[in-house]
TrEMBL record:
Pfam families: I-set. This is OBSCN protein. Transmembrane segments: none annotated. Residues 3-86 form the Ig-like domain. GO terms for cellular component: cytoplasm. Gene3D superfamilies: Immunoglobulins. The gene is Obscn_8. Its main location: cytoplasm. InterPro entries: Ig-like_dom, Ig-like_dom_sf, Ig-like_fold, Ig_I-set, Obscurin/Obscurin-like_Reg. Keywords: Cytoplasm, Disulfide bond, Phosphoprotein. PANTHER family: OBSCURIN (PTHR35971:SF4), SI:DKEY-31G6.6 (PTHR35971). PROSITE patterns: IG_LIKE (PS50835). It comes from the Eukaryota. It is found in: Cytoplasm. The lineage of its organism: Eukaryota, Metazoa, Chordata, Craniata, Vertebrata.
Length: 86
């Protein structure tokens, strides 16, 4: 069983204007096959035309496209027992 990945670079707060993209990024201690999940509030996010979820090695990114006031709220990234929120 692979050792658990930890979050080494936490999410940073992002301020965006309506219609802009908001980009969130965090970095893990290692590449992992562990389940990772992004949340807006309590809602799990999926990659679709409004949300772009990417992974490059240990870097995990979330891009919220053309944000609206409804997108305002805490964004969280979870891997194993670790969570980062912005």
């Amino acid at each position: 069983k692979e050792p658990a990945a930890a979050i080494v670079e936490m999410l940073k707060d992002v301020t965006s204007y309506e219609g802009e993209d908001a980009v969130f990024e965090c970095r893990l201690s290692r590449e992992t096959t562990q389940d990772t999940q992004w949340f807006l509030g309590d809602v799990p996010l999926q990659s679709n035309e409004m949300n772009e979820i990417g992974v490059q090695g240990t870097r995990h990114t979330l891009i919220l496209r053309k944000v609206t006031l409804e997108d305002c709220g805490p964004i969280s990234f979870k891997v194993g027992q670790h969570t980062s929120t912005a």
